[in-house]
Amino acid sequence: MKPLCVSFVEQDSTLAEQVLAHLQTAGMQAHHFVDAHDLSAQCTHPISDVVVLDAHTLGEQRLTYTAKLAKNPEVRVVMIAPATEPQVRIAAIAAGADVCISKPFNPTELIAIIERLAARMPRALQTDWTIDPVRALLTGPSNNAIDLTAMETVLLTQLAMAPEQALRSDALELAIWGLSDFYNNKRLQVCVSRLRKKLTKRHGPEELLATCWRSTYQFVPRMHFAPKR
Q1: Fewest 10 Å CB contacts: which of 8, 76, 148, 158?
Q2: What distance in Å separates the CA atoms of residue 48 and residue 60, rounded to the nearest whole number?
Q3: pLDDT interval class at 117 (50, 70, 90)
Q4: Are residues 42 and 146 in the same domain?
Q5: Residue 215 is part of a domain; what is its CATH number?
Q6: With 60 as the cut, is the pLDDT of residue 46 above it?
Q7: Domain CATH number, residue 97
Q8: How is the beta sheet containing 129-132 ordered, strand by strand?
């Protein structure tokens, strides 16, 4: 299995060296960026699974870079800010950070957070799937067709129209039932659970329909639409 790749943006080279040593001991690939200029390459060509940002290192650019990184559904963002500045952590969460922790921090705690975030990441699968909304069929790489209910068909159609993206549950509820509320959220959870059982029965335990961070869903392999008949 490919090791988890983590980028750490921190102007204090001594601290960065200590943190990178802990990450590498935990079996992760670790990279150090000293400032926003170095980080710009990371935002343009993402190479990391998790990016850990120090708020003071980035200064006024911290929210800009947080938001830019958060747009990539395959990247998780951790913001580090002083315990005396809760407003910085709140703003980072609003900008798209997955987790904010106080500085000084325990590297072991940071590793636990990174591992937890990584467990929620969808894995990229290079297999072809086809959805036929008219016939309500989902066909996998082995040409095993799965019969879909009306709700499952709409759910997968929405996900197919947003390849490599995670869609929020409220958007899916609106697409399926025209209303997002507590009742339809539960209905969506039931729909997802039943569909996962179908997928597992036909195609094994690989997580194809992933629950991502912040109540979002993604069908990990790319889906194609069946030709119109």
Answers
A1: 158
A2: 23
A3: confident
A4: no
A5: 1.10.10.10
A6: no
A7: 3.40.50.2300
A8: 145-147, 137-139, 129-132, 223-225
Q: What's the pTM?
A: 0.56
Ramachandran region of residue 153, left (φ > 0), alpha (ψ -120 to 50) or beta? alpha
Residue 125's pLDDT band, with cuts at 50, 70 and 90, is very low
Using a pLDDT cut of 90, give the percent of the chain over it.
31
Cα–Cα distance measured from residue 203 to residue 133, given in angstroms and rounded to the nearest whole number: 20
As a whole number, the mean pLDDT across the chain is: 84
59/91 same-domain check = yes
Query: What is the extent of the structural domain holding 217?
Result: 129-225
